[in-house]
Specification:
The chain is mainly β and 782 residues long. The protein folds into two domains: 2-120, Carboxypeptidase-like, regulatory domain (Immunoglobulin-like); 134-781, Beta Barrel (Maltoporin, Chain A), CATH 2.40.170.20. The chain is built from five helices and 48 strands.
Amino acid sequence: MYSMNRFLQFISLNLLFFCAFALSAQSGTCTIRGSVFDAGSGEPILFGSVYLEGTNYGTTTDINGFYSINKIPEGAYTLISTYVGYDTARFEINLNKYDVQTKNILISESATLLGEVEVSAAKKEAKTEVKTGTVTITPKQINKIPAIGGTPDLAQYLQVLPGITFTGDQGGQLYIRGGSPIQTKVLLDGITVYNPFHSIGLFSVFETEILKNVDVMTGGFSAEHGGRISAVVDVQTRDGNKKEYRGSVGTGPFMTKAVLEGPIVKLKEDGSGGSFIIAAKNSYLDRTAPIFYSYINEDGNLPYSFTDVYGKMSFNSGNGSKISLYGYGFTDNTDFEGLTQYDWKAFGGGLDARLIPGTSKTLIDIKMAYSNYTIRNEFNNTIQLDGQEDIVTTGGRASTIGGFDIGIHFNYFLNNGKAKYGVDFGGFRTLFDQDINSQIDDFEQNSTDFSAFFLYNKTFNKKFVFEPSIRFNYYGALSQATIEPRLGMKLNATDWLRIKASGGRYTQSFISTKSDRDIVNLFTGYLTAPEEAIINIDGEELRSSLQTSWHGILGAEIDITKHVSANIEGYYKHFKLVNINRNALFPSDPDYIAEKGRAYGIDFLVKYDYKRWFVWSVYSLGYITRDGLVPTLFDGYQKQTYPPHFDRRHNVNFLATYKAGKNMDWELSARWNLGSGFPFTKTQGFYEKYEPTNITDDYVETQGELAIIYDDELNSGRLPTYHRLDLSVKKIFTLGDRMKLEATASVTNVYNRKNIFYIDRVSLEKVNQLPILPSIGINFSF
């Protein structure tokens, strides 16, 4: 309690300092601010340009369409708003001394499509934001990838990003620059989503048509985000149409989906209004696979099904303030009949509010959210009962994690910069049941976490971007406080070359029941870091059970030509990891053990985007190691440095999209992926394992079980190289001003490459990833 009081005093002093800083920074002259909206739908315009004609005063809008131009001398000006494909909006304004004026802007789509735009908002943002290790994704980009099952999905696009490793089509997971899934935080409109991907790794829980913006932060991110030690994926959804009712329905052999949006309060000239958007999708692959893909296995079965529902309501006021209410429900079921069954359920909801006080230059963001995730895994056996086969559940396990988040953040827009600070408060409960048929050996823990952060971003002389930030955390379950300093910098060396760097310290209290050594495991349980002392691989007792990491990233952005850009980044991550002690033999052995890990490499990205062509080319070279205790055949446990099963050294992704036809209503897409083989532990031999149940057992006559002798060197082998080609063609039929039909034909794994999923060690039978999968899909929008 004493340490908690000291920590809260420390936080309070810092918050007073931050507030004093914000108030002192308000001694400018005049400010013009507001939001820019699409006049046809009321959706905010992202990264549009807003400036005062004939001056150097200007800025770009953020992901909420908000802009703020500060420290303007009093006088009369012409305010101009521009965006690619939209008509320019012009307004005459008069600013008196110390004025803080709000001007919301509605812009309309241009009647003629612009051929070239000399000034790009994205390029302007690149010169004022560090964004090391960050890739921003839009729905437009996601729709360029060959659509598996006729349905493009965020999960498919994430696989082509630099630094991301995808471990397989069936049960595959995404590993970001050496971090496991538990070490990546996924946010949906500010709500934590604990499992964003379905068991068939081709689809996420996010519906592409309602997405607004996705920031994938692969490392070195600022103190605004915390609670994870490797990466952050921040998903933002659209508000919905505030002018008219719109929707879409799509279907294919994998799933059916629907989206509906429309006004609650119609958009007004001052930008006020309300809207809703709801999306739902349901997969029936487990039922269609025997019909369309009967050649996949003996049963022609892909035992995957899921249902996702998301809804949101948003309201804007005339002064730019906004409130949104949203909720979701996701389910997933995978049933390997007669063997095992996985199912998980997730639900949650929340409220986001952006308040813009009338005369203050500080914006206030308020977040309240709740989320819950439960996964169950049942083990089944087939038995003979009354002459008939019957499947019975012989055991299983379950895990639940859930809790609430409350946060209040303050944003202040400086001249050529910004300051942001805030506090977050959360309560969480984790429950892990090792045997769902009993009430023993359950792990249950409650935790209350508190954090505060401060971020400062300033551009000096249009050349140097400086972004220091710091985060303070208090983990209630561990009674431990942490300080996480972080720093980002960018040098605009020339008009075509930008050099950037970032790094810092990161912590998290959640750990996973899944080992880095597990190759095929759809079950991921969640635990809170234990309160008891942790033993490291040297047998030393550590004071803290927190998982921690240090990041360092150095990179360069190069504009090779007007339409060709390149991004090069080298990175290093050092991890302190806490895992369940799977080597424990005796009751006296510790339940948990601390290990070390490293991830380092270099990523290359070259992009071309102009008119009919979009080309995306990525090469990643990465090394991932873990230091742990490994059981050996004759020498007990030994310390060993080994690569985890997701250590893919070389990874190549090539994506190309071409729009054909006079009206560009045909779209041809191709994606090719090449990856070096994953590590695995070799088999040395077999022996008969016999464990007597009582002293009278005849060990001479009784038959034992077949047991495996593993190689002493963990993961010293490598599977064959993985590669796959996907193709798709899309035709767009315009049926009217508001109606459109898209027909898509695609082929996944075109040349039917037999990529190994895993090999049965006893029978040596190879189990492959998905074979060639042709599909068609249609999507009708109105």
